């Protein structure tokens, strides 16, 4: 098969799966729908691997054009794809992790009556996500960008009979729209500035453009990334998005879609490198989000909410990497995060499945005995995210922190604090869920069971990836070649040249690494002391809390603040417009037209009074007039 | 004996006008009905007259058609009248205005 056909087939296969499943609807047997959905993604994965191997053998970026899409004046856009090291890595993650999550969904969603719909949405999501990362111009990326937002909306509100879930879906969609507007305006500005939307035309010319324009473009693009990747101030939708089924949380709201912002910034790395102000903004937003979300996660009691805030925090960390110009480390962390966060979410899903849809960690505990396989894989995920060597998270996080230290020790301090908090709350989650006494009711305990094979096998695969995934980026310091950084270097080549690096001595790097690992272990120890040794259980709903605890338990009241500052005033304004413009303006005009028509017709309807004699009289009169007229003429 | 054609024209005009006025001013359905017949026969008379004058039999054939149609119309019309009388106990057409929009 030719390379071009292979590239085109990668996104088309999941689309084909979606069309097939959604057109046949409920008539299709569940097993068959599952087969189509999984097989289409698996074959796409196989193609992605083939392309990856081609790139490894030293082939340059591969491109394929499907057709000319829009052509108007000097503007033209085609549906064309680009597979370079960056998008190839994304392809592997999306199709690989995506396939595992598809398989997992078979088990998790088995009893759901809308199983086929779920599978078709997942396939549609994979299609759009592939479009996003493979597009060779901004427009194709934008189509994918909007498409994944749509799928996210559909899947968050998958159980649409629950109004809360619908509200969460709306919230996610609207928050994303705010960001998308920034992205769209940024794209328009790119077109105005560069006269094209192809990466190949835009990125190499960036250096010829003045910094102020680039700063504006990059900030606008970053607003898009804030929405999609849940950064301050647009992050509040992500925790609510946990209303969707757990595989969705794993695939869309942890592993792939939310990292689209990171991908987008990395794709435009040269623009950011040329604009120091935008870099600072990315760094500051990343740091703030990483720390802020980590503190909120400390006091959450819903297993999925903790993971959601930890995702927000980890995404913040990725933006820290981008903000200090360490693009490869950001992408590296994104890949390892996809492994361990998907694992954690799927593990949480397995726990929820075992506990019959109980998500409150205060009602769990001691599950280690009942679901050992889930416990074991979850433990791997927690160790990975906490950054214990040699798990995946350690290498990627350490690289980000080292790069941050090079740039700015204060940034390093904040990032370290966030990652130490991460270690604490993740172990808090682990201990409360799997250790100590079981706090569930007798009846629930009786029914706890390990999940089916279709769910545990993806867990095992992801655990292996979380354990070994870090080895693609072992730093020089530890005797590795940092393969991933080398692999990605063509994409970031120009940025690396422009970026002035302060090299750290090996001693400093070792010291930093040691400090972080030691403090992480201390954090784990603290968590152990509090939640295992002292068997502390978070206060029940409504119990009195200290003010600080109460604030973070209520997520710093951000939702309430947004409600008061933005939503309510918007309602007031719309109320004002309703009264002034809508009712006394437009409504009155429309009513005036209607009323005048009514009045006029009132006059004319007197002619049509229903008296037969009258009609005949008029008719005869008419005949006489016609005859008279024709005689006199 | 040769009667001028003008006489026929005047006679049928008068008959037709009487018929029209009857339809216009009377409210009794039976009278209206009779007036319609009067109008039809005024036309018939004119047709026959011209047919004889112009030596063309087409006019007379038309008259037969008109008579046949009038007979059918009478059959249907009288049936409607009977039904109307049973429903309303009256043959006044002005009270038959229930289909008014």
What does this structure look like?
The complex is a heterodimer of chains A (633) and B (101). With 633 residues, chain A is mainly alpha-helical. Chain A contains 25 helices and two strands. Chain A has helices at residues 3-24, 30-56, 85-108, 115-134, 138-156, 163-194, 199-202, 211-228, 237-240, 246-255, 260-267, 269-273, 276-297, 303-323, 327-354, 372-386, 392-407, 409-434, 442-447, 453-468, 483-498, 506-533, 547-553, 558-604, 612-632; strands spanning 62-72, 75-83. In chain A, strands 1-2 form a two-stranded antiparallel ribbon. The mean pLDDT of chain A is 88. Chain B has three helices and no strands. The longest helix of chain B is centred in the C-terminal third of the chain and has 31 residues, at 58-88. The model of chain B has no long low-confidence stretch (mean pLDDT 88). At the A-B interface, helix 25 of A face helix 1 of B.
């Amino acid at each position: 098969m030719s390379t071009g056909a292979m590239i085109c087939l990668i996104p088309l296969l999941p689309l084909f799966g979606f069309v097939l499943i959604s057109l046949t609807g409920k008539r299709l047997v569940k097993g068959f729908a599952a087969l189509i959905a999984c097989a289409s993604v698996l074959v796409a994965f196989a193609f992605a691997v083939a392309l990856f191997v081609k790139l490894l053998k030293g082939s340059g970026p591969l491109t394929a054009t499907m057709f000319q899409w829009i052509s108007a004046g000097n503007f033209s856009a085609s549906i064309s794809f680009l597979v370079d090291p960056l998008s190839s890595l994304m392809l592997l993650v999306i199709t690989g992790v995506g396939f595992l999550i598809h398989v997992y969904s078979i088990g998790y969603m088995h009893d759901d009556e809308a199983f086929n719909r779920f599978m078709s949405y997942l396939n549609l999501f994979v299609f759009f996500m592939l479009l996003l990362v493979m597009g060779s111009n901004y427009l194709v990326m934008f189509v994918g960008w909007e498409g994944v937002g749509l799928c996210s909306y559909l899947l968050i509100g998958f159980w649409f009979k629950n109004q809360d879930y619908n509200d969460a879906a709306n919230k996610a969609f609207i928050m994303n729209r705010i960001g998308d507007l920034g992205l769209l305006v940024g794209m328009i500005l790119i077109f105005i500035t560069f006269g094209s939307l192809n990466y190949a035309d835009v990125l190499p010319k960036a250096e010829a453009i003045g910094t102020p324009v680039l700063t504006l473009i990059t900030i606008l693009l970053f607003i898009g990334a804030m929405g999609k990747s849940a950064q301050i101030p647009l992050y509040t939708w992500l925790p609510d998005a946990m209303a969707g089924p757990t595989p969705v949380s794993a695939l869309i709201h942890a592993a792939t879609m939310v990292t689209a912002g990171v991908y987008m910034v990395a794709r435009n790395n040269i623009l950011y490198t040329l604009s120091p102000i935008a870099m600072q903004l990315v760094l500051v937003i990343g740091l703030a989000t990483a720390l802020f979300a980590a503190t909120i996660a400390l006091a959450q009691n819903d297993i999925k909410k903790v993971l959601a805030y930890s995702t927000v925090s980890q995404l913040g960390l990725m933006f820290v990497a981008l903000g200090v110009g360490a693009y490869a480390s950001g992408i590296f962390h994104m890949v390892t995060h996809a492994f361990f966060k998907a694992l954690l979410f799927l593990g949480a899903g397995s726990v929820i499945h075992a506990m019959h849809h109980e998500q409150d960690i205060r009602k769990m505990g001691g599950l280690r005995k009942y679901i050992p396989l889930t416990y074991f894989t979850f433990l791997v995920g927690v160790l990975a995210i906490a950054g214990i060597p040699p798990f995946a998270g350690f290498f990627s996080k350490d690289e980000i922190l080292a790069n941050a230290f090079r740039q700015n020790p204060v940034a390093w301090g904040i990032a370290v604090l966030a990652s130490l908090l991460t270690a604490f709350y993740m172990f808090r989650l682990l201990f409360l869920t799997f250790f100590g006494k079981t706090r569930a009711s007798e009846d629930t305990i009786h029914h706890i069971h390990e999940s089916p094979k279709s769910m545990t096998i993806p867990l095992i695969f992801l655990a292996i990836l979380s354990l070994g995934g870090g080895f693609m980026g072992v730093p020089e310091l530890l005797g590795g070649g940092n393969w991933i950084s080398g692999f990605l270097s063509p994409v970031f080549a120009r940025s690396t040249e422009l970026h002035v690096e302060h090299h750290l001595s090996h001693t400093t790097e070792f010291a930093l690494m040691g400090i972080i690992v030691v403090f992480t272990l201390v954090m784990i120890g603290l968590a152990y002391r509090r939640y295992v040794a002292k068997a502390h259980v978070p206060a029940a709903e409504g119990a009195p809390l200290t003010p600080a605890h109460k604030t973070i338990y209520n997520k710093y009241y951000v939702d309430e603040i947004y409600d008061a500052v933005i939503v309510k005033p918007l309602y007031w304004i719309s109320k004002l417009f309703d009264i002034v413009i809508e009712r006394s303006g437009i409504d009155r005009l429309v009513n005036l037209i209607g009323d005048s028509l009514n009045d006029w017709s009132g006059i004319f309807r007197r002619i049509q009074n229903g008296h037969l004699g009258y009609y005949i009289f008029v008719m005869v009169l008419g005949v006489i007039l016609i005859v008279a007229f024709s005689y006199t003429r | 004996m040769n009667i001028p054609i003008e006489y026929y024209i005047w006679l049928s005009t008068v008959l037709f006008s009487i018929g029209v006025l009857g339809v216009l001013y009377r409210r009794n359905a039976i009278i209206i009905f009779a007036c319609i017949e009067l109008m039809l026969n005024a036309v018939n008379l004119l047709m026959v007259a011209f047919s004889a004058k112009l030596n063309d039999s087409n006019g007379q054939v038309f008259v037969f058609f008109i008579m046949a149609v009038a007979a059918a119309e009478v059959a249907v019309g009288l049936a409607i009248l009977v039904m109307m009388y049973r429903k309303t106990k009256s043959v006044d057409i002005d009270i038959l205005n229930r289909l008014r929009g």
